[in-house]
Amino acid sequence: MSTEQQEHGKGGVYSSQGKEFTRDSNYITDRIVETPSAEGDHPVESGRYRLVVARACPWAHRSIIVRELLGIGEAISMGVCGPTHDADSWTFDLDPGGVDPVLGIPRLKDAYEKRFPGYPRGITVPAIVDIATGGVVTNNFPQITLDFSTQWRQFHKPGAPDLYPEELRAEMDEVMERVYTEVNNGVYRCGFAGSQESYDAAYDRLFTALDWLEARLGERRYLMGQSITEADVRLFTTLVRFDAVYHGHFKCNRNKLTEMPVLWAYARDLFQTPGFGDTVDFEQIKQHYYIVHKDLNPLQIVPKGPDESGWMTPHGRDTQG
C-alpha cells in the first residue's frame, strides 16, 4: 500500500506497524503556464480549468488561500469536495445530487481516470481539471500555488500581493522546505508512526522546528519579513489545524499552539487577514481527520472542542519587526 493510498483512506488504514510514515510525493507534474514551452505544459486561460479542493485538507487549503489572496477566482473556478471520503475517492457530496455542477462528476477519481485510465495512485486534492476534456491536469500541490503567483499574473486583482518575490526566493525556498519536511509533514509522521521509535523521532523533529519558528517570528511579523508570502500560507494551514486535530489526534502534545505565544499571535494575525480565516472550516477539518482515520479513531467520534473564539482576539503583531 502506497503512502498516498494510506493518507487518502484505503480502508481507513494510515499507519503500518513497525514502520515510520513516508509520504509518496509522486504527483502529476504537468504545469499551467503563461507561455507553454515544454512537454506537459498547458496554457493559462481564463475559464478553462477548475480547481478541485477540500476545505478539510491542508494541502488543498493552500490553493484556496492563494486563489483568494490573488483574486483569481473569476479566472479559475473552484469545486469543493466534502470533508470525508470513501476508500476510493474524494467525492462531491456537498453539491446537490452529489455531483460537481461544472464537471458533472460525483467523484474526483472520474477526472483522474478520464485522463489516465486505471490511475494507480491516490486520488488527491488539490487537483486542477480541464473542464472541456474532463481530465485532470495536475495535482502537484506545491507547484500549483507557485504557478498561481507567477503564471497567472494577468488575472491578479489590482494590488494583489507578491507571494513569491524574486529577490527572496533562494531564502524562501529553504524556509519552505524546512516548514514542509519538519512541520507540514512532521505532524503526519507523528500521527501515522508505526512504532514508538519512529513516533519519538518525529515528535522531537516537529517541536525542534516549532521552537525555531517561534524564535524566527519573534524578530519579524511574517516568515520573510514585513509582507505575507507563500511561506506563511504553507505554515498557516498546519498551525490552524494544530489544536483542533494534531495536538490530540496525532499525539503532537508537548504543548498546544495556544501555549506558544509567538506562534499563536502570528497564527491569529494571519487568521484575521482576509483570505485566511474566512477560508477555514473547523467542523470539516475535524470531521475529516476523526472520521476518515479509522485506525487512529475506531469509533469515529468527532470532538466538540476546542473553543474557536480565541482566533479573533487581538494579536499585537502589527507592531512587530
From TrEMBL:
PROSITE patterns associated with the record: GST_CTER (PS50405)
Entries under InterPro entries matching the protein: Glutathione-S-Trfase_C-like, Glutathione-S-Trfase_C_sf, Glutathione_S-Trfase, GST_Omega-like_C, GST_Omega/GSH
Pfam families (UniProt xref): GST_C_2
Domain of life: Bacteria
A GO MF term: glutathione transferase activity
Gene Ontology cellular-component terms listed: cytoplasm
This protein's UniProt keywords: Transferase
Site (Lowers pKa of active site Cys): 246, 289
Entry keyword annotation includes Transferase: yes
Residue sites binding glutathione per the record: 90
List of catalytic residues: 57 (nucleophile), 188 (proton donor/acceptor)
Ranges where the GST C-terminal domain occurs: 165-289
CDD domains on file: GST_C_Omega_like (cd03190)
PANTHER family reported in the protein's UniProt record: GLUTATHIONE S-TRANSFERASE OMEGA-LIKE 1-RELATED (PTHR32419:SF6), GLUTATHIONYL-HYDROQUINONE REDUCTASE (PTHR32419)
Protein's name according to its UniProt entry: Glutathione S-transferase family protein
Organism: Tessaracoccus antarcticus
The organism's taxonomic lineage, starting at the top: Bacteria, Bacillati, Actinomycetota, Actinomycetes, Propionibacteriales
